[in-house]
């Protein structure tokens, strides 16, 4: 008989085995140690054992749901009105037996009991599992992880956002070159800031355990910042992607410099530097409706390798 309970400190080894047995597709890292799960799922200060509900039979963990909350507008505390289903995992030999449905219902009950008025499944920027699912940043439940989508839709969830996961293989592609790129290269310089790329509580508690830095494109003549982005090294993907990988987050171009090629220039120069450091793959995620940003990534040699979907409870 399957029993349901909250998380215990003895659960991580079984959760690790469950994670590695479920075949999530290209967007999930294979894990060798519970230490990784501890860093990205159990160690954040806002982790609540009551929000991780486990399905167990004869001492074996056969599924779990992990629920949490989004940040408020200041990114300095949780907003308990915005509930999040961050993970829902069922062992392959227990699927089709109602385990996922029961876990999801219990996760939703937990969120509502803490004040949630909205429940989102798989949002970008979710609280947990950064660096091991979806690349550098959680980009919804991935198209390459197919089983979750039909299940959520059967449980009264609808798609709210679509994210394009875009990747460039630095070992197999050359940097784009044009007169425009050469002109911008002569007038700009790329600088690196090893400090916290976005010094706020939400960034630090989710991504602060990963190796991060910020790359900025500066105007040589004035020293003004034209554009910047954050880099996250994706060491956990080395085996499943066959090389060193890095993720790009928060690409921003100052308003007065937009539509002049500087976003592409920053991506091209950043990729060049990462290649020199031995990185083989670079990945970013872009909302599918953000056509200008999609175009910038494409112009820098990126192409779509996956899609991620965010769901909202109807």
Distance between the termini: 31 Å
- The helix count comes to 9
Mean pLDDT: 94
CATH class of the largest domain: Alpha Beta
Keywords summarizing the entry:
314 residues; alpha+beta; Aminopeptidase; 13-stranded mixed sheet; 9 helices
Give a quick precis of the structure.
27% of the residues lie in helices and 33% in strands. The protein contains nine helices and 13 strands.
Question: What are the SSEs and their pairings?
Answer:
Blueprint: E1 3-6, H1 12-21, H2 34-42, E2 52-57, E3 60-71, E4 78-90, H3 99-113, E5 118-121, E6 141-142, H4 147-154, E7 157-169, H5 179-187, E8 188-193, H6 201-207, E9 212-219, E10 225-233, H7 238-241, E11 245-253, H8 262-276, E12 281-287, H9 291-299, E13 303-313
Parallel strand pairs: 4-5, 11-12
Antiparallel strand pairs: 1-2, 2-3, 3-4, 5-13, 6-13, 7-12, 7-13, 8-9, 9-10, 10-11
Description of the molecule:
- The chain is an alpha+beta fold.
- It has two domains: 3-164, Gcn5-related N-acetyltransferase (GNAT) (Aminopeptidase); 167-306, 3-Layer(aba) Sandwich (Aminopeptidase), CATH 3.40.630.
- It is 27% helix and 33% strand.
- The protein is built from nine helices and 13 strands.
- It is elongated and about 70 Å long.
